[in-house]
Design brief:
This protein is α+β, with helices and mostly antiparallel strands. It contains 9 helices and 6 strands, in the order βααβααβββαααααβ. A 6-stranded mixed beta sheet has the order 2-1-6-3-5-4, sandwiched between helices.
């Protein structure tokens, strides 16, 4: 059990059977709000792969394991309260720009409403934090199909790289994990054109 950050494929997104994990009500509510704002519907997204292959980059699944205290302190040091809320306060990440977050009256796993953020803005904030701590983005997994990032940080590879490439990121690997998590989640959403949710 625990909290996961996962990508959503077209079948699940448009499925109206919530008992089977469908998110059709969320998709409809988002399209209605986008229409109200004069924006096109979000109706083109890829199917989830039939089989998850680690490193393929076709799906996204990571588990929020480390404590967040250091990451929250990092955000307070480098982001405004509004920026922090934008980076971490969403429950649905979509692969297009939004001028402001959208709140939808649709329940999710952790709240009565769903807060929608656009991946371009989340990516910009995550990139700023990555630069601030000197995150070695060339070393951390880019594809996050099957807990690749989680395992990299928890199984010792991060410690090995931290010893070879010290810097602010290496002083708090738990905080660095969340910087990398939000960075890779936003990149994946934009690259694949898919939504990302907590599960």
């Amino acid at each position: 059990m625990g909290i996961y950050l996962v990508s959503v494929g077209a079948q699940e997104w448009f499925d109206t059977d919530e008992d089977e994990g469908g998110r059709g009500a969320l998709a409809a509510a988002l399209d209605e709000e986008l229409s109200r704002r004069g924006l096109p519907p979000y109706d083109t997204l890829p199917e989830a792969p039939e089989r998850v292959v680690r490193g393929a980059g076709l799906s996204f699944e990571e588990k929020l394991v480390p404590p967040m205290d250091g990451f929250e302190a990092l955000c307070r040091a480098h982001l405004s309260q509004e920026e922090y809320a934008m980076l971490c306060g969403w429950s649905l990440l979509v692969p297009f720009a939004l001028d402001e977050e959208i709140r939808l009256p649709v329940e999710n796993s952790y709240d009565d409403t769903t807060t929608v953020a656009g991946a371009p803005r989340v990516l910009a904030l995550a990139e700023r934090l990555a630069r601030a701590v000197g995150l070695p983005v060339d070393e951390i997994p880019e594809a996050c199909d099957n807990l690749d990032l989680t395992m990299w940080f928890l199984d010792g590879e991060a410690k090995r790289v931290a010893a070879a490439r010290p810097g602010p990121w290496a002083e708090d690997l738990d905080a660095a994990f969340y910087v990398a998590l939000y960075l890779r989640a936003a990149q994946h959403s934009l690259r694949r054109g898919c939504p990302i949710v907590y599960s």
